[in-house]
Every structure is written in structure tokens, then in C-alpha cells.
Design goal:
Strand content: under 5%
Number of helices: 16
Largest sheet: none
Structural class: mainly alpha
Amino acid sequence: MPGLCRQRRISSFIGRKSSRTSTPEDLTMEKAFAFVESYHKWGAESIEFLQNVLPGRGPFFISVSNLGDPGLAFTFYFPIVIALHAGLGTRFMWSIVFCEWSNMLLKWLMVGDRPYWWVNETKLYSKGRPPVLLQFPNTCETGPGMPSGHAKLNAAMFYILVSALNTMVISKTSLLTDQQKKLAKRLTWLAYGGWMALVIVARVYVAAHFPHQCIYGALIGFLIAVLVSRTPSLHVLSRRQYVMISAAIIVTVLGMYFIVLAMGSNVLWSVEKAIKWCVQRSYIHIDSTPFYSFSRYSGVSLGLGLGLSSKWFRKTDQSRFNYKMIASMVILNLAASATGVYIHKLLSPSMFGWYVVEFTLNVVVTFLIVAVIPNFVRVACNMPPGDKYKKK
């Protein structure tokens, strides 16, 4: 895994070069490092240019970045989407979980720098002025930069939503002609592309990512969403199968973590760089650390699986719900999510077993949203169990 050892191997390469003739491996490493640095140089100078051309636009791009934040996807978008349509909400959340999971593994493998610390450590500008990059409250994320999790997540979740809008609404409406439906679908995909471009520019403008990291992340997110959309079995697995998926997610991440440690690499190297080069300590957020993200998406994956395989979910059959029942679910889902966020803020990262508590909190809140609240609304409205449950 060359990505994990990049820094260590480069330093050893420099040491060997001074003592003997370079080997083919040394030359390959030197070329690879120079290639990556050239992308970083172009990216950093592009960020400086963008910030100079669009002065004072920081608040706008921060708002764009916040709208596509992973935390909002878990705590705001998902509770609403699954209340509107259970199948859509399930696809939506699985795409988010797989994005976050793959993002963590790829960041450890690829060891990507972030612009705001790279400009302060690179040797490319030893004889000249390095780019001057402004920092914002969204700049100092603590994980490695490659690929962009924001770009990946937005590409995935909005692909799921736009696809559903086209197939479930536009294609079935009687208010539009066939020609108008084609035009409407093209406009929705155009809006999707426009939003992704805006997210990428926002992440680059705040110096959280280099441009190529955002493009790479967006492509991976798109592919994940397509695969989830084409895997309907994710909705109807058994409880054991869902538990196995969650266990696989946990085992692969922990396995990668111990492999990195065994290879002598510092897993938290990016956190140290964030603390060192961030201009304001308040810009560093615990929510962006790798293991907090891990406790969140692994807990959500287990809560989602337990909810989908529960008898309460089978009893519900949301397709029979009227508008009042759906509105009630939206309100209750958001209330449950807000309660989870409130409890999260009360917890201290320094407390013993903090990650386990966060994991458990995400399991419980997700299970409530997926299974308990829909069934509660059904019972409160005196609706009998759905056909899916009767067939069991």
C-alpha cells in the first residue's frame, strides 16, 4: 500500500539519495512525488486566484458547504426523506453510509494533504512566495484530504434524490406532456450538475481541498449511488445479514487501522497538522475527526439494518399513509434526530468510552426513525398492520 507509506518512504528516499546512486525504485518514487506535488502546486495557486477574484464571498461558500455537510445528511435530510418514502430513504441512507465508509478507508490509503497545511510545509516555494490562502470556519477539517468526503456525499445523495424525482414524480405526472417530461428531467440533471460544481468550488474556495480531490470524490460518490440504486436487495435482507454488513464495515475499518499502525505510520498525522497550521483553534471540529465519523456511520448502518428487519417496520407499510401521517412522521423524526444531536453535544470527547456511547446513540436514533416512529404513527391513527406483515 504505497499511499500509507508515502511520507516515510520519501524521507528514506532522500536519505539514501545522499549516500549512494539512486535505484529505479528511488526514481519512481521521486517522479510520483513530483507528480503529486505539481497537482498540489496548481491547486494551491488556483485557490489563491479564486479567493482573490471573489473577495468577500466566504460566507456564501461556507453556506454552500454547510448545506452539503455529512452531519446534515444524517440529522436533517435522512429523517425527512425516509418519512416521505421508506424505500427512497433506505437507498438514501445506504449510499451515505457506504460513502462515509469508503471515504475513511481511502483517506488512510491515499494520505492526501489539505491546502491549508500543504502551503506551509512544501519545499516548492523555498525560493519564492507561497500562495497566501485565507482560512474560514470550514477550512480546518482534521482528516486527510484525498478524496473529498463532501463532494462524494453530495454526488451520491443528490443522485438518489434526483433519480427518485424523475422516476416517481415527473415520469408519472399527468400534468406534463411527454416532451415536457423529457425537458423537466434534463433540467433536474442540469441542476444536479450545477449543485455539484458549486459544492466543488465551495470546498476549494475555503481551502479545505485541492480541486482534483473534489473531482475524484464526486466520481466515487456517483458510482456508489448508482450501485446502491441497482441493489434493491439492500431493502429486504434478514436481520442477520444486516448485522453482518455492519460488522463488515466495523471490521474493515479497525483492520485497516491496525495495519496502518503495524506499518509504523501515524494514523492521526492529519489531526496534528490541522492543530499546527489552523489559524484559529475554534475552526477545528471534533465532528471531522476520522473516528467520530466512524462511530456515526457504523452506528447508523446497524440501526438502519435492525429497523428494516424489525416487525414494526413490516407492520407499518408507509405506502398507505396519508399526508397528515407523513407530516407527523417528519415532525417526530426531526424531533428524535434533534434529541440525538442535543445528547451528542452534552457528551465530552474526554469521557471514557465516548466512541462507544456515540455509536450506541446513532444506533438508537436511527432505529427510532426507521421502525419505532412509523409504527407509532400507524397505531395512533388506528391503521391495521400492512400486507407485508400479514404475509409473515
